[in-house]
Amino acid sequence: MTANMVRLALDCVLALTVVATARGLWLLISWSWPFQFIAMVLTGLLMGAREFALYGMANILCQLTLAGAWFFGPKPMNLPLLGWASFASNVVLMAVMAGTIALNRPLRQKYGLMLQSPETVTLDAGSDEEVRILDEHASMKKAKVRHGDSLTFHICRTQVVCSSRAFAAILGDKSVVTWGDSRHGGNSTDVQHQLKNVQQIQASRDAFAAIVGDGSVVTWGNHNFGGDSTAVRDQLKNVQQVQASRDAFAAIIGDGSVVTWGNPNFGGDSASVQERLRNVQQIQASEFAFAAIVDDGSVVTWGDPEHGGDSSAVQDRLKNVQQIQASRHAFAAVVDDGSVVTWGDSLCGGDSTAVQEQLRNVQHIQASDAAFAAVLCDGSVVTWGHGMCDNLLLGFSCADDKFKTVRQIQASNAAFAAVAADGSVLTWGSAFSGSDSTAGQDRLKNVQQIQASRDAFAAILDDGSVVTWGAGYSGGDSTVVQDQLKNVQQVQASRDAFAAIIGDGSVVTWGNPNFGGDSASVQDQLRNVQQIQASEFAFAAVRADGSIVTWGDPPSGSDSSAVQEQLRLASGSTQLLGNGGAPKEAVVDGVLAMILDLLLQASGTACVYIAAYVSLQDMYQLSAASAALPQYTAYSVALAYVVKLVGPVLVGRQAYVQFAFLMKVMVALSVILGAISAIFILPNLTELAGYYSQQACEFANTRECLGIYAGLFSSGLGKYDSTIFDTFRAFGFTVFATCIFSVAKAGLYACQDFRFMAKASTLVFLVIFLPVLLVARFFFVSATALYVASVLPSWILTLVFLWRLQRYGALVDTSLLFADADDGGDEDGDGNIEAVLPVTGKTPRFSIFGWFLRPGKLYSLESG
Length: 864
Known about the structure:
Blueprint: H1 2-28, H2 33-47, H3 50-72, H4 78-103, H5 106-110, E1 120-126, E2 132-134, H6 140-143, E3 150-156, E4 159-162, E5 166-170, E6 176-180, E7 198-203, E8 207-212, E9 217-221, E10 239-244, E11 248-253, E12 258-262, E13 280-285, E14 289-294, E15 299-303, E16 321-326, E17 330-335, E18 340-344, E19 362-367, E20 371-376, E21 381-385, E22 406-411, E23 415-420, E24 425-429, E25 447-452, E26 456-461, E27 466-470, E28 488-493, E29 497-502, E30 507-511, E31 529-534, E32 538-543, E33 548-552, H7 564-571, H8 583-614, H9 616-632, H10 634-652, H11 656-681, H12 685-700, H13 703-708, H14 710-715, H15 723-751, H16 754-780, H17 783-808, E34 832-840, H18 850-853, E35 860-861
Antiparallel strand pairs: 1-2, 1-3, 3-34, 4-5, 5-6, 7-8, 8-9, 10-11, 11-12, 13-14, 14-15, 16-17, 17-18, 19-20, 20-21, 22-23, 23-24, 25-26, 26-27, 28-29, 29-30, 31-32, 32-33, 34-35
């Protein structure tokens, strides 16, 4: 960060130096505008700031347009024509500027000072008395965020869900990208237009179901196994959650009812129990059936009767059920008195009769494919079911006291591994599935967590190393990569392989290569990995920038090359200031950014055009004053460029105090520069009026102009019309106001406060400029009056913009943005980050110099 800030400071000094030098040349050399704009292009290219380069090129285009109008336009009406040509060419200029300002990522990206991951932010705001959900694009003003409120924000990271042979990723913009075997849900083309604002995805073996923001459900994949929900589409409204068996889905609706679809043999048809499915709280699924807990604590089941779909034999005991766990073919429910009720295939855990007396004070249950293990209040473990071998240890009870305090149980296909409170490990079940951990038992100390593949286990120790055991073909042997398994943060498993995320964000894999055990082909891409998801045959790693890297069996999801472009674009859709990264909002911001400059351009052009019909003398006076303005505001415009370069970076980083300080310094400098320019102008009105009038006349090259100013050039200005002095007196004040206006406008641009700028300029144009223009045209009928009318909007807006910055600070009417909430944490385990930030707002006492002495009312978000 320090290096980036130093580079930013040096580049900003370079930008200021180049622009200031170019502006200085413009003061010294007539017709030196190419120096200024070419310098801007070079500066932009050197800095990688697209806005600067395009601004210079667009200005060159604008000037060439004016030159063409000068050469080919009719005379003596060439100056008004030039005005309208300037207006037309500036439309192009401003469109380019607006677009680059609204979408300018390169500068922020270069300095590493922007949000790097495509995250969607959901906001809750309010005091202790009320909580309300805010629109992620809302402004603080519209959201009515007040001093003392707290903002709770939830950052939704890229989420990956997998079926047996396909993946679906919810990206930061809540769209979905799928890849893998199309027969298993890897192709969502037919429903892609519906996959917007996706909240959650659930997967069966061969299909996916996505809950969209409006509460409806979109499905795709194998039509016979849940990929087609057409028959129940009308019922899928206000869906709260979706659960999946192997080949069917069940959705809980907002009113507590349940809708099912998919293969009837796997629970896709709940018609026989539909009347009982009311006020459902949660649903659990085995491979073949579903079990729903109703609000009164009873349980409703449906699906294959032999595999858990029929609980009638134990229905009278299913009361006050707290939780349900499922193996592939059976269910186990924990009742509020701590006892357990089981049903389903008796060979796969559906019959716990032999250990029923031991099942007291059960805390939670873990399931393998065909067995269960219950952890009791005292930390001991009771098991039942089919161990695939004769060493399941039915009703297991260990005499060793340390295994009376089990804190975690993990299950492979047919074995269990339990972590005791002291970090030691006990295993049991089928030897073919990892029950024999004797080879690594001396290293299994201080174990933090365990992960399981089909027939092997991997344990992370407190020193970050990993111990593996079980079938070698399933990842039970990590000898080849053991030296790399240091500082391991987490381990994920496919069917027969493991992938570990190391502290530096790299990934180490081992196990069956056909199941993702070999990541050599993508190893150089596995950097800054934050999470890994696995299907049966492949892995998908989500990096910090939101991109996804895949490996494993190509037909089963490891080959994501067909969607990499979509994933890359999505990872670049980071929310930027004011537009949330969405193209529609960016275009709106761009249009709003143009309105201010277009109205100011229109006011000046309209006054010149009207003057041409009143008096050519007035027209040339206006033209002379307008031509002189850039020369005397050059350095303040250079300051404005610094604000445009540095300001967005500071606001994007929420460095509001630093941004306020920057604005104070720049406004103070612009006041000083404007005062110096005005002081220089007033005593030299005669020379300035003569010089710029002559320049305008020579530029026009018309007999009318030469006739009007013949006396000026032969006998001096003092003996001619004094109105030109009045015009240049107003010009002196305009220089002072414009110097401040340039910096104040740049400050609002940095905040991307485009809506306020558009509203203020439109209001000033309609309410102030047009009436003053009519008065100047029909009552005063002078160049001075028309000139005052043309510059009055910028005078008024200078005061308005300063008031805006003083009164509300940097965040009002700009989209609410937050940096990555590293100090928040995923407390509820939903894959998102939650954090609470208090809002503080301070309003200074009214003072003419108050804004320079205090930051003003600057809403700040302080890390909680």
